Automatic annotation (TrEMBL):
Protein name: methenyltetrahydrofolate cyclohydrolase
Any Gene Ontology biological process: tetrahydrofolate interconversion
Source organism phylogeny: unclassified sequences, metagenomes, ecological metagenomes
Xref: InterPro entries: NAD(P)-bd_dom_sf, THF_DH/CycHdrlase, THF_DH/CycHdrlase_NAD-bd_dom
Molecular function terms, GO-annotated: methenyltetrahydrofolate cyclohydrolase activity; methylenetetrahydrofolate dehydrogenase (NADP+) activity
Organism whose genome encodes this protein: freshwater metagenome
Enzyme class name: hydrolase
Length: 138
């Protein structure tokens, strides 16, 4: 998604909040690959100086699974923010909704923010279908 929206990654400071084996760790490796050459800080909910690490980042990726964990005051103005986390929360009328790791107010500060829900999830499913089609045509 970052490439698709021309978010500059080469040499960027990246804060990934979430150290899971499904998203956080693999994304950290991907962002440091030759050609992308980002500097990655892999964080978790108990990281010391979490806010400061996020404030330095040109790209912030929330992959923690905690509703609205990342706050607007943590974001550098103009930063690209990718919301991968998803959490089910109960609404006022008892109706469950899905929300991401990024507080929606971050949109006022970020230069780019992926929607959640409706951002990374559909992209993931599309890439899985593409991979299946590619695998069957070999």
């Amino acid at each position: 998604m970052l490439s698709r929206y021309d978010v500059p990654m080469k040499g960027a400071e990246v804060a990934i909040i979430g150290r899971g084996v499904t998203v956080g760790r693999p994304l950290g490796l991907l962002m440091t690959r030759k050609g992308i050459d980002s500097t990655v800080t892999l964080l978790h909910s108990a990281s010391r100086n979490l806010e400061e690490a996020v404030k330095r980042a040109d790209i912030v990726i929330g992959a923690l699974g905690v509703a609205h964990f990342v706050q607007p005051e943590w974001i550098k103005p103009g930063a690209a923010v990718l919301d991968v986390g998803i959490t089910r929360v109960e609404g006022a009328e008892g109706k469950a909704t899905l929300v991401g790791d990024i507080d929606p107010r971050v949109a006022e500060i970020a230069g780019w923010l992926s929607p959640n829900p409706g951002g990374v999830g559909p992209m993931t499913r599309a890439m899985l279908v593409k991979n299946v089609v590619d695998a069957t045509s070999k």
